[in-house]
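User: I've been trying to design a sequence by hand for this structure and keep getting stuck. Would you show me what you'd pick, starting by listing the structure so we're on the same page?

Assistant: Good idea, let's start from the same input. This is the structure you sent:
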């Protein structure tokens, strides 16, 4: 059975992170985010049609071969009858009323015109479940909002999902954190920046909201003043939080010129989210007695919260997914549709499969050569061993390398296919990377390391399903910070990725860097510049290098391009 999972609508201006997943007989073949094709960050107000076309063409699937389509939001028009399906909570709606709207240029070609609409948080949960190797688990989903709630607790057993509890929109941790980022002049999409800023601040006893694991209830800090404390309204929630911050915290305005004025505030916001996340995990465990927890939803990008849940929640296993944000819901939508129409829910991943990362379309043969020729670049073709040696030597010498290799990773993290790489041994390297990216100088960088690299830095060990995706913070040994100062933040943590050992590709490169420097690890940040999505094609990679004088070397195996 050939199935699509979709999210994103072109007729809804607030829609974002549109994406598509292609699954065949219960196995994900590929997935692609709309922003990678349209080149608009987060693809605001866009449907996934362009990404669908690119993905289908790449894998040789004609639209008429699609047998079912799942959509990751209960967005069917009012009056569409709901169908109850065993093991699929929150109802299922099937209609062809929005096919032309969501896929205007493809609807006439599709083998099926029906779209099956699933609960948004269920799709978050299912995406985490199907991309992990656990048959039974609790799942904590927290984001801005998804349908009728902002946080959901699920339990899954052999592909049958059960909604344990759901909490209303007005208690949205995602909205709270986004508003705090906006108040700190980092933008509503600046959650990652706010997390980095929080490490510079000292916390107070202010917890803007708390969650009681015993009763399953949220509450606001009793000292909060303003409309939010008396009558929180979903329609005004963002504005109410901004007004509450101005009324209750220093600085009492969102107009300070200095980001560090907001560091203590950011620290309180961060600790609020960490403690709420821990309490929600405790609530799920109290309700189910399970020993495995999966994390999804945009709040699961908060690596400090994830670390505390992994260490303190009492779960034996805590895991995430390659894309906890809204784009990642397409995995759940596709595989739920497979289960609904194929008769059997797909199983979770085999334990030996490893955590999946690269879902993008294959890079066509000759595409790299064509991109280099069009740009007039002088490139050198090398065999695999030579290329790895040249790139590792460049990194060891302090050069900044643009790394483009094979199908792209899915999700918001660069994980070794579309990356800017540099040695973490000198702090000045971070300054160069931040210039390429147009980032604030105080922002931290993430590390990609082999398991040996984790040990070399005396770090907390990798957490399977979190560290694979840069979703977990790790403390670095005090005596080892000097080996990677550009990759360790002021609080002695790094948002590190563990990379499996390999004879080729990114794993082989890290091993070669270890031979050169003694540390098999690099700074790894996404291959893009400010305001743009990560590059998708060889041509975009060449263009980025041309525009960025601080990039010394572009590696697109088997080719190397040096700046000259």
């Amino acid at each position: 059975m050939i199935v699509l999972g979709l999210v994103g609508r072109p007729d809804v201006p607030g829609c974002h992170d549109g994406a598509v997943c292609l699954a065949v007989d219960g196995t994900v073949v590929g997935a692609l985010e709309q922003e990678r094709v349209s080149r608009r960050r987060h693809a605001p107000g866009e449907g996934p049609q362009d990404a669908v076309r690119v993905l289908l063409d790449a894998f040789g699937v004609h639209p008429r071969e699609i047998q079912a389509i799942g959509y990751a939001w209960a967005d069917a028009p009012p009056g569409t009858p709901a169908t109850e399906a065993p093991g699929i909570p929150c109802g299922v709606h099937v209609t062809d009323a929005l096919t032309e709207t969501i896929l205007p240029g493809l609807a006439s070609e599709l083998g099926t015109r029906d779209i099956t609409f699933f609960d948004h948080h269920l799709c978050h949960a299912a995406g985490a479940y199907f991309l992990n190797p656990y048959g039974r688990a609790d799942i904590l989903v927290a984001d801005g909002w998804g349908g009728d709630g902002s946080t959901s607790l699920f339990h899954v057993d052999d592909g049958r999902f059960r909604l344990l509890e759901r909490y209303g929109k007005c208690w949205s941790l995602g909205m709270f954190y986004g508003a705090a980022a906006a108040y700190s002049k980092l933008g509503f999409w600046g959650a990652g920046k706010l997390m980095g800023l929080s490490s510079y601040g000292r916390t107070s006893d202010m917890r803007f909201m708390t969650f009681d694991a015993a009763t399953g209830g949220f509450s606001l800090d009793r000292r909060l003043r303003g409309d939010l404390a008396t009558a929180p309204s979903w329609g005004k929630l963002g504005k109410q939080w901004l007004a509450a911050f101005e009324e209750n915290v220093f600085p009492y305005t969102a107009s300070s010129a200095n980001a560090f004025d907001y560091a203590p505030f950011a620290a309180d916001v961060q600790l609020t989210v960490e403690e709420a996340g821990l309490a929600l995990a405790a609530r799920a465990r109290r309700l189910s007695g399970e020993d495995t927890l999966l994390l999804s939803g945009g709040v699961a990008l908060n690596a400090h919260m994830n670390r505390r849940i992994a260490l303190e929640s009492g779960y034996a296993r805590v895991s995430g997914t390659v894309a906890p944000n809204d784009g990642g819901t397409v995995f759940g939508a596709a595989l739920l549709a497979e289960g609904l129409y194929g008769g059997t829910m797909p199983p979770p991943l085999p334990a030996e499969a490893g955590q999946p990362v690269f879902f993008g379309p294959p890079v066509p043969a000759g595409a790299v050569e064509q991109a280099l020729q069009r740009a007039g670049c002088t490139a050198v073709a090398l065999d695999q061993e030579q290329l790895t040696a040249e790139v590792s030597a460049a990194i060891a010498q302090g050069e900044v390398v643009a790394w483009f290799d094979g199908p792209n990773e899915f999700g918001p993290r660069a994980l070794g296919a579309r990356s800017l790489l540099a040695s973490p041994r000198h702090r000045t390297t971070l300054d160069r990377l931040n210039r390429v990216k147009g980032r604030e100088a105080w922002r931290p960088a993430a590390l990609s390391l082999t398991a040996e690299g984790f040990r070399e830095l005396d770090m907390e060990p990798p957490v399977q399903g979190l560290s694979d995706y840069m979703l977990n913070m790790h403390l670095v040994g005090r005596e080892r910070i000097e080996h990677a100062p550009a990759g360790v933040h002021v609080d002695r943590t790094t948002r590190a990725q563990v990379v499996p050992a390999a004879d080729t590709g990114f794993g082989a490169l890290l091993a070669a860097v270890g031979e050169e420097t003694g540390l098999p690890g690099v700074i790894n940040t996404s291959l893009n510049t400010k305001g743009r999505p990560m590059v998708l094609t060889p041509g975009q990679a060449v263009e980025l290098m041309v525009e960025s004088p601080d990039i010394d070397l572009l590696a697109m195996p088997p080719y190397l391009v040096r700046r000259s």
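That's my pick for every position. To get oriented when you compare it with your attempt: The CA atoms of residues 436 and 548 lie 6 Å apart. The chain has 17 helices and 24 strands.
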